[in-house]
């Protein structure tokens, strides 16, 4: 009997970071209990502890239910945390700690995205990066055109003019989120229409919110579609001529702990460089500058191979360890269920759905013309245009288990979002 008890405590569980189940539960009880007692530090220490315990615990429970695992996937973690917050069941200490950790002074979300951008680009097959990069704006353009046309047509069916649908629903949904999309777009509208900025922002922000939620559910749908129709997906590979393995660069090193340190330093340097260059040229988003800088280094081959390898290993560690818990963190800190419920009028939801569906169809079909897989093209060039920027990219990609495509998702959110602002400014001049 004693031997059986020992096995219970020492046998690892792959859904709990290979930690013994009993020990994980003990550690989680201490962490979450501290949150309910108001004793959880509102710092990086409390944030790391809380989101890892909640994320892996919720996944451990849900992965016992095949229906949830095979449909909602990792999105179930964020949705569960958002629902709990909506009903006020999280204590203030837990919400405060997680909010500060994810998007406050600690800003773990930016740290995570930087790791994914740097590692995914440096770890990409150089030939693929060149081919895919050149073609990528083709499906982005296709998704944008289809989203505007389908949204405008459905809007007219519900008594909304094509112009208003484009200005207040389609454009904001496809515009790259709030900070880089809705805010500058509202200022643009304010100047052109002679309205106060808060008035124009209030008219377009609901579209950003509902677009983000629809993009998450769209990713769940596309993941299921890929399983039902395998020819439509590369299971994480974007281009049809390359499998997931063929999409990766090949290295022949044995990893050491120093590689993780080098990878972390290189990743953070590219992240900071993006912000420096954004200060010089603010019209290009800091993440876009990071993408451009990393891509130049990869294509030119100026980085030593061992440093590339180190950044890829750091990316592997960050993605493998933090994707699951980050879903819980975003659910608590950033997913506002009430904001979505407040705008759920049937007509508005149907028009917004048409916009997101147009983005899926346009990006997916046009992507196939340049030899992209339908699912991966629709997710990155379509849904990652329609979501709410950085946190939306994480939720969309985690919902369809394609976090390796973060670099392309960020191109959509940042450079694609800037493209939408240009399109909206041109349309303002034509339609007003």
From TrEMBL:
Family the UniProt entry places it in: Belongs to the 2-hydroxycarboxylate transporter (2-HCT) (TC 2.A.24) family.
Molecular function terms from GO: organic anion transmembrane transporter activity; symporter activity
Top-level division of the source organism's lineage: Bacteria
Species annotation: Enterocloster lavalensis
Protein's name according to its UniProt entry: Na+/citrate or Na+/malate symporter
One of the Pfam families matching this protein, by short name: 2HCT
UniProt keyword terms in alphabetical order: Membrane, Symport, Transmembrane, Transmembrane helix, Transport
Transmembrane segments: 21-38, 44-62, 71-88, 108-124, 136-159, 165-183, 204-225, 260-277, 284-305, 317-337, 349-370, 411-431
Any single Gene Ontology cellular-component annotation: plasma membrane
InterPro entries in UniProt: 2-OHcarboxylate_transport
């Amino acid at each position: 009997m004693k031997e059986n008890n020992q096995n219970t405590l020492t046998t690892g569980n792959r859904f709990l970071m290979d930690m013994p189940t009993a020990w994980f539960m003990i550690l989680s009880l201490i962490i979450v209990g501290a949150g309910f007692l108001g004793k959880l530090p509102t710092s990086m220490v409390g944030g790391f502890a809380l989101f890892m315990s909640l994320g892996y615990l919720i996944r451990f429970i849900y992965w016992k239910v095949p229906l949830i695992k095979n449909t909602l996937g990792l999105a179930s973690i964020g949705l569960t945390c958002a629902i709990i917050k909506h009903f006020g069941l999280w204590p203030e200490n837990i919400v405060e700690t997680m909010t500060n950790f994810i998007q406050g002074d600690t800003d773990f979300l930016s740290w995570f995205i930087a790791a994914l951008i740097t590692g995914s680009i440096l770890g990409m097959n150089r030939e693929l990066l060149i081919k895919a990069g050149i073609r990528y704006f083709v499906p982005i353009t296709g998704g944008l055109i289809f989203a505007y046309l389908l949204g405008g047509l459905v809007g007219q069916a519900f008594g909304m003019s094509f112009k208003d649908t484009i200005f207040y629903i389609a454009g904001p949904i496809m515009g790259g989120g709030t900070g880089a999309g809705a805010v500058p777009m509202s200022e643009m509208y304010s100047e052109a229409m002679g309205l106060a900025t808060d008035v124009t922002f209030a008219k377009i922000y609901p579209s950003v919110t509902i677009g983000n939620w629809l993009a998450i559910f769209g990713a769940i749908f596309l993941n299921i579609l890929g399983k039902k129709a395998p020819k439509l997906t590369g299971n994480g590979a974007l281009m049809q001529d390359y499998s997931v393995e063929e999409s990766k660069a090949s290295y022949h090193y044995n990893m050491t702990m120093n590689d993780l340190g080098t990878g972390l330093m290189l990743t953070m340097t590219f992240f900071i460089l993006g912000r420096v260059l954004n200060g010089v040229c603010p019209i290009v988003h800091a993440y876009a500058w990071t993408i451009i800088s990393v891509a130049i280094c990869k294509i030119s081959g100026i980085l030593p191979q061992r440093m590339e390898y180190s950044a890829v290993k750091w990316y592997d560690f960050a993605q493998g360890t933090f994707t699951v818990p980050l879903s819980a963190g975003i659910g608590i800190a950033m997913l506002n269920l009430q904001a979505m419920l407040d705008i759920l009028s049937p007509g508005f939801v149907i028009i917004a759905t048409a916009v997101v569906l147009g983005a899926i169809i346009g990006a997916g079909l046009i992507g196939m013309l340049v030899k992209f897989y339908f699912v991966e093209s629709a997710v990155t060039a379509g849904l990652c245009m329609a979501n709410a920027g950085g946190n939306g990219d994480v939720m969309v990609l985690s919902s369809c288990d394609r976090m390796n495509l973060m670099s392309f998702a960020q191109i959509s959110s940042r450079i694609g979002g800037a493209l939408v602002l240009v399109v909206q400014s041109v349309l303002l001049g034509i339609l007003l």
